[in-house]
C-alpha cells in the first residue's frame, strides 16, 4: 500500500516541499546549520526513505519534476544580478580573477591529492566537477570518463557542506563583504550555496548566481586539459 502510494508523482513533490518548509520554520526558531531548509529536507527525505524502505526510484517519480525547476530558478538569479549590476562593474577584476584562481587552485589540489592517494583516473574525473551545478557536472564527468552517479552524490555533498560551513567560516574570518560572501558560496557550493546566499541578501545572491555560471564555464574550458593531465599522471 505504502509503496503504491509512493509511486504517485505528488508523493515526491509534496514530501520535498513539506520538509523544506518545516526546515525553514525550524531554522527561524533555532538558526542551526542543520536546520537550513535545503539541508534539512535532504537529510529528512533520505532518513524517511531508509526507514520506510521506499525505493528512491519511487520517490523520484515526483522528485524528477522538481529537477526541471532548477534551470529556470538558476536563470531567474539574473534578476538579482541586474538589480546589483553596479557591484559587478565596480568589482569585476576581483570577482573574475577570484573565481578563476579558485577553480585552478582546487584543480591543482585535487591532482595533488589524487597522486598522493593513488586515485584511479575515473575517480579523478568523478571528483573534478564537484563544485559546479549538477547539469554541468554530469556532462563534464561523462566526458572525462568519470562515474556519473557518484559525481551527482559528490556534487550534492559539496553543496550541503558549503551551505553548512560557509557562514561560520565567514564569521570566524570576519568576512563581511557581501560580494566576497556571494562569490565564495557560488563558486564552491553551486546552487545550494546560492540558496544560502539568497537568505543572506540580494548582493550575495547576485554574486553567487554569477559565480555559478562563470565557474561552470571555466570548468568546461579546463576539462580537455584535465583529460591530458590525467592521462599523463595515471
From TrEMBL:
The keyword Membrane applies. GO terms for cellular component: membrane. It comes from the Bacteria. The chain crosses the membrane at residues 6-26, 38-56, 62-79, 91-117, 147-170, 210-233. Keywords: Membrane, Transmembrane, Transmembrane helix. It comes from Alkalibacterium pelagium. InterPro entries: CidB/LrgB. It is a multi-pass membrane protein. This is TIGR00659 family protein. Pfam families: LrgB (PF04172). It is found in: Membrane.
